[in-house]
Amino acid sequence: MNDIAALFAEVDAEREKEERKALLKQILFSDETAPEQYSDIFSDVWKMTCINFEELQKVINILADNGKLLLLREKAVEAIEYYLSEGRERVYEYAFSLIIDINGYKRILGRDLWDSLNMGSCGLNIHDKEEHQQVLFVISMLHHYQGDVDNRLSKVLELFNSEYVSVRRALCEMLLPYSMNFFGVVKEHIGKLNLKESKEKEMFVHFMDVTERRFDYAAKCKELRAEYMYPSLDDIANEEVAKHLRKETKKAEEGHHYFFQDFCRNVLLGRGYGFRDSDGSVHTLQHFQFSRAIPMMTASMTPLEQREYIDMLIKNWTELEEKHE
Q1: pLDDT-derived band at 140, boundaries 50, 70, 90
Q2: Residue 282, SS3?
Q3: Is the terminal CB of the chain with fewer CB neighbours within 10 Å at N or C?
Q4: Which of 96, 101, 185 is nearest to 148 (CA)?
């Protein structure tokens, strides 16, 4: 009897499990599902085991079509990375397909996935792709001025070696505004890579040389500096920026207690950023630093230009083709 009862219990448990799976997939493929529900599913290991990679791609399509994908970028990246154990190459190919998709939300997700997986150093060979795919890859990667610049440039700049003239021309054209935002990083990568000689590469290298001379001249010409031409306005601007940063920092710290505060104590600093301990010994403060590339030109965009730029990123490419943009 006990064996029969255990068997029935096992059957009931299996039936309940299948019912939960069916309900889960019903929620996944519904247009009415809220972003919070998707976030919960993507964060739950058991629920992710109930979904295969092809089903997840269908979910990504649904989220992109109804505009919810932008809210779930980080969770979607985590969900896709769940399938790395089943084969990295398949995930890399999927990331590439997202990057060149006509849907703007998918392209954003693809670039996020590229950065998260550090695909700049992966074995994906962009040169093996079709001509139009290489062109779309160049445009998608270079019309977006955020993300891991080093990681993206390492593969994009290699397309100066593409066998297709159209790809090299698109790369040269898209790099002009991109280089104005990340001049130093682009110059460094160009110097590192072993690029074949071509008309397009020659044109771009010439552009970089001319631009660098202009930057050097501008740095030496004090008449072009705001602090020299408009000192009072420059002082006001710097003070307003400092006030804003202090206000935002204070707002962010209100009501927060960080765990490391329990391990810290207040000390009085002296000259040279040193402090005297309770036993009289003098110590210097430890410090660390890091750096990252920040676009130069986007910071000077007007609110209208910023809005137009964001709209351009998320628009479907079919809409832009109709408007010949």
Answers
A1: very high
A2: strand
A3: N
A4: 185
Structure tokens at 114: 């590229």
Count of residues in the chain: 325
Distance CA 245, CA 186 (A): 30
3-state secondary structure at position 276: strand
pLDDT single digits (tens) 79-96: 999 999 988 999 999 999
Domains of the chain, first to last: 2-223 (1.25.10)
Q: Which residues of 257-284 are buried (b: 16+ CB within 10 A; e: fewer)?
A: eeeeeeeeeeeeeeeeeeeeeeeeeeee
The residue ranking higher by pLDDT, 60 or 17, is 60
Q: What is the pLDDT of residues 227-267, one digit of tens each?
A: 777 788 778 878 887 887 788 777 766 766 555 555 566 66
pLDDT of 209 > 90? The answer is yes
Pairing outcome for strands 274-276 and 282-284: antiparallel
- Counts for the chain of helices (H) and strands (E), in that order: 16, 2
pTM score of the predicted model: 0.76
- Residue 323's SS3 state is helix
